User: Fold ADP-heptose:LPS heptosyltransferase from Myceligenerans xiligouense.
Amino acid sequence: MRVLGSNAPSHDLSAAPAADGHVVAETSPVPSGAADQAVRVLAVRLGSDGEVLVTGPAIRALAATYGQVDLLVSGAGAQAAALLPGVTETLRFDAPWSGPDPPQVSPEAALDLVAGLIARRYDLAVIFTSFRQSPLPTALLARLAGVRRIVATSEDDPGSLLDVRHRRPPWLHEVEACLELAAQAGAQLSPDDDGLLAVHPSLPAAPAIGGPGGSGGDTVVLHPGASTSSGAPRPEGSRAFAERLAGDGWEVLVTGSAVERDLTSYVAGDHAVDLGGRTSLAELAAVLRAARCAVVGDTGPAHLAAAVGTPVVSLFAPVVPLEHWAPYGVPQFVLGDQGAACRGTEARRCPVFGHPCLASVTPDQVSGAVERLARRPAAASAGSRRADVASWPW
Assistant:
């Protein structure tokens, strides 16, 4: 990965407004073999690991169409970027307009980024953002760097910063919104790409697991933390879930980052295996891939589970829309009061006393959801992951 601080011929991506108000590329999607045209593409996703993971299918579409795709991420998304297929080079820039704890504005860092982009001579930049995030600061720096065409979704008037201004339909899942933006840049998935989340198939070995249960087989991952406190169940609730699942006969693996060790130790108690702080994101992917099911809130590991094809019991707080951020393309069961008073507030801390949307989830509900997903009949497990989604409702 490069921390920022040959001439390629250009590809025509001129744009014009469509009848429905979208701005779309006039050129049709580039046919297979267009990589020979050596269009150099920069994809940008300045967000968390989860946000980077849900951008993966769109990045694969860009790579299938144009050949070389570099990915600019922040430090918060760097581990996920290293796992994505289709990325040629990963660049890092910690933007002062992105993330829960952004750095102070640094003219030197911004100029260093611009210099790095100038040196790479990008023909096209596609800036991926979520709802209410603005692509315009990044677009300004890309424009200063001489990027020929810049494509992004923007509710704000972009002035001369964007060549293709896309307006996102409100009902799209984040994965589909990213794919739609890639399509505005003329990109399409290859015919054999299912458009689901994915990581590189070769993952590091999972850490040695020893602890209660010792079944060595039927494991369930419980991830009690989240990047925002509003997206995680209460610790005592997670501990009760772990104890109930262990009582059901599952080997429960409690996962978390190094800063969550106190939480994972409490949740694991003497009835589960505490993996807090013992896995990188790639190692966590290996743990999830080997599990029968994951129980997790609205946070990056939910999308990582989806990327390795593991069913998810989603403990989803409705501070953000479920239709945008539910785990994508895997069997799932959503628990949590989706009509709670916090709905749509985008709060990072629960604005309602007692965290009722997730405090209402019971160990019995979690047990039943895991049983339903992890012990699916063999016929339900066969075929594509898309077929599984159709067979298993939220």
About this structure: The domain at 2-184 is CATH 3.40.50.2000 (Rossmann fold).
